[in-house]
Amino acid sequence: MYFTLAWNSFFENDIFPCTKAELIEYLERSGAPMALIDNIQELEDDGEYIESIYDIWPDIPVTNDDFGWEEDEY
């Protein structure tokens, strides 16, 4: 399973909390790439609500440090 930063735009905060089935339905309606929907379908469905994107992608890069960007180098 993999994620790209471009897919981050499909996860709006107002969709959460939701179940896995609700998230897949939302992604299908919003025109998300099939590869993203396939990744979500691979997640274990324990019946719990998905509270945020961090439940799906815990190591999502959010700061310049996460991207390996060193401002001193440029």
Task: Summarize the structure in words.
- This protein is mainly α.
- The chain has a domain at 16-57.
- Helices cover 31% and strands 0% of the residues.
- The chain contains three helices and no strands.
- The protein has helices at residues 20-29, 34-42, 53-56.
- α1 runs antiparallel to α2 (34-42).
- The mean pLDDT is 82.
Topology:
Blueprint: H1 20-29, H2 34-42, H3 53-56
Helix pairs in contact: 1-2
Features:
74 residues, globular, mainly alpha
Tally of DSSP helical segments: 3
* Main beta-sheet strand count, sense and barrel state: none
Range of helix content? 25-40%
Q: Give the rounded overall mean pLDDT.
A: 82
Overall geometry comes to globular
Strand content: under 5%
Helix/strand-derived class?
A: mainly alpha
Enumerate the spans where pLDDT stays under 50 for 5 or more consecutive residues: none
Order of helices and strands: HHH
The tally of beta strands, per DSSP, is: 0
Query: Cα-atom Rg, whole angstroms?
Result: 14 Å
Indicate the multimeric state: single chain
What is the distance, rounded to the nearest whole angstrom, between the alpha carbons of the first and last residues?
Answer: 33 Å
